[in-house]
Amino acid sequence: xxxxxxxxxxxxxxxxxxxxxxxxxxxxxxxxxxxIIVHDDASTDNTAEIIREYAExxxxxxxxxxTENQFSKFKKxxxxxxxxxxxxxxxxxxxxxxxxxxxxxxxxxxxxxxxxPDYGSCFHNSKIFYQDTQQLEHDILNKDEPETSxxxxxxxxxxxxTNTIVLRNNFKLQDWFNFLPVGDWPLFLIQIKDLxxxxxEEEMGVYRVHSQGAWSxxxxxxxxxxxxxxxxxxxxxxxLSKPANKVLRKRYRKYKKKQFKYYWKKWLxxx
Length: 271
Fold this sequence. Notes:
single chain; 271 residues; ten-stranded mixed beta sheet
């Protein structure tokens, strides 16, 4: 029987965290079949070995273990290796350093999408774990977001943690996607099209903040550059709606100003 949902997980040097991630997948109780696709991008620690051990015990786990790092070759694991293997009608995302804590997370999200065809994705609130201080707190990223939102809202800012979303497997990513500095926010924008987005109040997952994270480990100018280099290709390839593009252009101008101010302040300090 084909899975109704594909869990898609990408990892790199997540030896300290991957067991907790995989345990969160296996914790799920669903009335439908699932598959668990786990891609390791040639980790230099024991991440791949841990994935092998879990796969030997549970046939639902589909390991993709690279011997050469693909990200460094501008091949995003999601676009090139994981999504092409996903058989599910729905896709749940979680990176190898985050984890889920509600055993009915997937059931709740799939039940909602099955009952509401006008929604393209749904996500939930989460907790946030600060690795350095070992503090677990409520994540405030999306606390002010409405229960229902659209692509225009999402174009203003990314309020969805990757490990909280379940989306319809209704998209195809083009080659230029590989050259984006990040993949989650542009993926959510490309996928949602003219459908709606649902937010659940429950905190069903944990987002981990540590120095190795793409966004959480970035400083001010890195964040500015990543944002600009993500927005520019989205506008160039015109893959979003006109209202969403209008919002993106405004956001692009805002970050160009931030970039100018950053370098202007640095120049003044040198004088």
